[in-house]
Amino acid sequence: MMIYDYMKARRFLRNRIEHIAETRDLICTTRFDECTISLRELCSAMVSDPEPFPQHLDESIGSICAHEYRIWLRKERTYGDAAALLIALLDATANGSRPAQGMWVTDVLRQRRDVGCGAVASGGA
């Protein structure tokens, strides 16, 4: 599904990240705003968004990243970075594994860097 209003899409993504951080509900069964698309559809639409991700939500992302929280904090991140992390969580959940083992945040952010997406600042993940 195409999202043409990135301001709304960013708000939807922020709302869902806060919800996931609070409830650990990746399915996001609660209805958010007027958003009717799934979390996966939303993240797929947002994964290339270069807009800087708001730092006031770093704590929510930290809850999602768990032991790799400091990797997220190394540089300014984008909405696309946040969407990519959620896609990795959704993929792992669908496969029955837990991505919060090992260096999954590092891997996701490094892959984005290697293909030219992601962090606003230059340098490694």
Low-confidence segments, given as residue ranges, are 119-125
Beta-strand percent range: under 5%
| Number of helical elements | 6
C-alpha Rg (nearest Å): 13 Å
Query: Based on the structure, what is the oligomeric state of the protein chains?
Result: single chain
State the major sheet.
Answer: none
Overall tally of domains: 1
Q: How far do the termini sit from each other?
A: 29 Å
Shape: globular
- Secondary-structure content class: mainly alpha
> How many individual β-strands?
0
Mean pLDDT rating: 81
What are the key terms here?
mainly alpha, disordered C terminus, 125 residues
Molecular structure report:
- The chain is mainly alpha-helical and about 120 residues long.
- It has one domain (about 5-115).
- The protein is built from six helices and no strands.
- The protein has helices at about 5-25, 40-45, 60-65, 70-75, 80-95, 105-115.
- α1 (about 5-25) crosses α2, α1 crosses α3 and α2 (about 40-45) crosses α5.
